[in-house]
């Protein structure tokens, strides 16, 4: 038997990875970043949007225990809260992370 790889889902299946998903500091930092980019959101607004979009993703999945698309959550957040200013920015200047761009997730 020639085994080349074994892949499985760990987070939420075998163990729970402890992350800073509910950290005020994390959402404060994201709020500051977005404000700097022209999207004025406070930490509680960022948190509510993040977890709301995450819930939407999971509900839209046919899977019993769906994974989530983290770049997709942030892309959706930016698209929903964008302003005329942010929508007018050239693609390289728009508020996004490199992995959030449509071309990076398209294939």
Give a verbal description of the structure:
By secondary structure, the protein is an all-alpha fold. Helices cover 49% and strands 0% of the residues. The protein has 5 helices and no strands. It has helices spanning 24-36, 43-60, 70-81, 84-88, 102-105. α1 crosses α2 (43-60) and α2 packs across α3 (70-81). The radius of gyration is 17 Å and the shape is elongated. The model is unreliable at 97-107 (pLDDT under 50).
Strand content: under 5%
Question: Radius of gyration in whole Å, from Cα?
Answer: 17 Å
The coarse silhouette is: elongated
Q: Span between N and C termini?
A: 32 Å
Summarize the biggest pleated sheet: none
Structural class: mainly alpha
Uncertain ranges:
97-107
Count of extended strands: 0
Q: Helical stretch count?
A: 5
How would you state the average pLDDT, rounded?
Answer: 78
Q: What is the helix/strand order?
A: HHHHH
Helix content: 40-55%
Key words describing this protein structure:
107 residues; 5 helices; 0% strand
């Amino acid at each position: 038997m020639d085994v080349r790889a074994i892949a499985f889902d760990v987070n939420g299946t075998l163990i729970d990875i402890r992350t800073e998903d509910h950290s005020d500091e994390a959402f404060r930092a994201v709020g500051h970043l977005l404000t700097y980019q022209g999207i004025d959101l406070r930490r509680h607004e960022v948190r509510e949007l993040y977890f709301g979009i995450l819930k939407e993703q999971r509900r839209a999945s046919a899977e019993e225990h769906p994974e989530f698309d983290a770049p997709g959550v942030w892309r959706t957040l930016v698209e929903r809260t964008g302003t005329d200013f942010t929508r007018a920015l050239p693609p390289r200047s728009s508020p996004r992370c490199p992995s959030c761009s449509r071309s990076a997730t398209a294939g």
